[in-house]
Amino acid sequence: MNVLVVGSGGREHALCWRLRASGHAVTAAPGNPGMAEVADCVDVSASDTDGLTALALERRVELVVIGPEAPLVAGLADRMRRHGLAVFGPSAAAARLEGSKLYAKQFFQRHAIRTAEFAECASTAEVDAALAELGGRVVVKADGLAAGKGVVVCATGEEARAAAREMLEGNRFGAAGRKVVVERRLVGRELSLLALCDGSRCALLPPVEDHKAIFDGDRGPNTGGMGTVSPVGWVDEALLERVRREIFDRTLAGLAAESIDYRGVLYAGLMVEEDGTPWILEYNVRFGDPEIQPLVARLDVDLGAWLLGAARGAMPSGRLEPSLGAAVCVVLAAHGYPGDVRTGDPIRGIDQVPRGVQVFHAGTVRVAGELVTAGGRVLGVTAGADTVAAARALAYRAAETIHFDGMQFRRDIGAREANER
């Protein structure tokens, strides 16, 4: 089938690669240099609603897959559906689950979905009142979209005040930070769990563990993700069933009760307590980057059939079972990330990576024919194998063949998982 993938990052490259491997013809808008190897890239911005709709109609695409969150929040899926297009991606109303942290927390409360106690704050005085109630160990979140950087985990009240002040008064995230959510900090192990949804049913993808901090040992500031591993050994079928029943199913039922038909992916950021109790931290309404990379490496299925089924409200029966035992994604980041990023550094060595490794482009462009860095997270080096240890070895061997000035990456992605196994 003819598929249009909207976006230009590592997530979209991974989707294009899996769709093309399943035999589909893929158009990407606007795409990136890596996506150009598996898709026909057309220079239409992900924010150009009219241009994207016209492109989909002109090419008679049978499925549109919207990658980034901003076009979803802006209503791209609604516009395309009005033109009769099958779209994998939620409506603007449904996308508020990611577009507003406050809306999401209130939704969780309305539908008895387990989440941390929180307060809505629009001033530093309200932050002080929230801290008096919740204590200093809190998480401060910008209400709106902040490119994955609007969450600060705080150990003290002073850290929380400083983070909130930077958002509310320092205008760090613009309109997205005019309100903040201050919530009680949960303790446990974080888990990323994604589910494809067709409005009435969800199909869980294999669990993924992300590594958010910039440095080895989970030190330093949080990033959008420095690497991922799948499977996650401490997650068993009983926990997956509990998350599906208590979080995903209640979410779909709550959306339906509010007359919202959710067709797309729900990406749950979870905290699992020592006793196995899962709590919802937040939802994303699109595939995670780099969470999707090990998933497409492990899932040798016709992903297009599943996404089309979700878009039409009737996914295939059965489960999404992985064909590979494990996969690891190591993110290669630019100089300065996650702060002020330097771009324009030439990238060498991608053509030397070992067989069986996929290098997904997240922040690259070509300038005068030369591949250079163009973002904070530049590449996602992804390898699959029978075991986590073997996948790690292959991914790091590939990472060592690539070079650009200022390149930084963690050397412990998946190490805990490999050791525990």
Protein traits:
13 helices; Dna Ligase, domain 1; Rossmann fold; alpha+beta; D-amino Acid Aminotransferase, Chain A, domain 1; 5-stranded antiparallel beta sheet; 421 residues
Give the end-to-end Cα distance, rounded to a whole number of Å: 40 Å
Averaged pLDDT: 95
In CATH, the homologous superfamily of the largest domain goes by the name: ATP-grasp fold, B domain
Based on CA atoms alone, the radius of gyration comes out at 20 Å
Q: Beta-sheet strand percentage?
A: 25-35%
Number of strands: 22
Low-pLDDT segments, ≥5 res: none
Tell me the number of structural domains.
4
What structural class do the secondary elements suggest? Answer: alpha+beta
Please outline the major beta sheet.
5 strands, parallel
- Amount of helix: 25-40%
Number of discrete helical segments: 13
Strand order of the largest sheet: 3-2-1-4-5
What is the architecture of the largest domain at the second tier of CATH? 2-Layer Sandwich
- CATH topology name of the largest domain, in short, is D-amino Acid Aminotransferase, Chain A, domain 1
Return the CATH class of the largest domain: Alpha Beta
Shape, please? Answer: globular
How would you describe this structure to a colleague?
- By secondary structure, the chain is an alpha+beta fold.
- The chain folds into four domains: about 1-90, Rossmann fold (3-Layer(aba) Sandwich), CATH 3.40.50.20; about 125-180, Dna Ligase, domain 1, CATH 3.30.1490.20; about 190-310, D-amino Acid Aminotransferase, Chain A, domain 1 (2-Layer Sandwich), CATH 3.30.470.20; about 325-420, Glycinamide Ribonucleotide Synthetase, Chain A, domain 4.
- The protein is about 30% helix and about 25% strand.
- The protein is built from 13 helices and 22 strands.
- It has a five-stranded parallel sheet, sandwiched between helices. It has a five-stranded antiparallel sheet with strand order 12-15-18-22-19.
- Helix 1 (about 10-20) packs parallel to helix 10 (about 290-300).
- The relative contact order is 0.13.
